[in-house]
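Continuing the batch. This is chain 6 of the set; chains 1 through 5 are on the previous pages. Same settings as before, nothing changed between runs. Recording input and output for traceability.
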Amino acid sequence: MSEPVSRQRLSVASRSLAAILGGYLAANLFVPAFARLVPMPPRDAAQLALMLSFVVFAAASVWAFACRSAARAWAGILGAAALFALVVAALPGGGA
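Output for chain 6:
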């Protein structure tokens, strides 16, 4: 196997992991963060956040393959997840 082909496969594998694992992490952190931010009854906020988390997961998957490099894909997705975690840690308990 030539070097460029194996490097390309490694990049695709890394982007796939970023999309799957990073997207899952970001989507799961989005739910409590959004539920804490939106001014709704807790139960409704949690349901809306859960529905929107599928959009977050899809956006993370698109982002992983739209970036110039796998490192940027990881940085963007983990950055979003860190932002959601910061909101969860900073705000008092919500509905999720």
